[in-house]
Amino acid sequence: MATAGRKPITFNNSAVHEYLSSGFLTYSEFKQDATPALVRAFDDILTGVSRLDFGGNTRPLSKRALFTLLAHLPVITTGIIMEAYGCSEQYSRKIAGALRVASRAIEKCLPTGHACPY
């Protein structure tokens, strides 16, 4: 029997996950140990993403929470976020959307020999 509804969005966060989980367990450690340019870029990205307007509640998401999820989740889905946070499906979709945007932007800033566009 087929289930109704859309197929869940699965986002590959492996590049960001591998970089962050290899040396930075917390946002505080990252801010202390990473290069100043990378810290500024991450802070700008996470600040912008945390303030995205997904409709409804305008309270910003936590930058620390976003960083922690990016560092610990190789794959981003609404279901995984619901399980990790114990929050509603609607709020999980909001967080998952923010994480996808952040991951794409952060991936461009990871140390690969290219200049960060931010």
Q: Let me know the largest β-sheet.
A: 2 strands, antiparallel
Share of β-strand residues: under 5%
The H/E string reads EHHHHEHH
Structural class: mainly alpha
What percent of residues adopt helix (DSSP H or I)?
55-70%
Intertermini distance: 47 Å
Low-confidence runs (pLDDT<50, min 5 residues)? none
Shape: globular
Instruction: Please give the radius of gyration in angstroms.
Output: 15 Å
Mean pLDDT: 86
Total number of beta strands: 2
| Total helical segments | 6
* Spatial strand order of the main sheet: 1-2
Supply the number of structural domains: 1
Write out key terms for the chains shown:
3% strand; mainly alpha; two-stranded antiparallel ribbon; 118 residues
Describe what this molecule looks like in 3D.
The protein is 57% helix and 3% strand. By secondary structure, it is mainly alpha-helical. The protein has one domain (11-107). Strands 1-2 form a two-stranded antiparallel sheet. Helix 3 (36-50) packs antiparallel against helix 6. The model has no long low-confidence stretch (mean pLDDT 86).
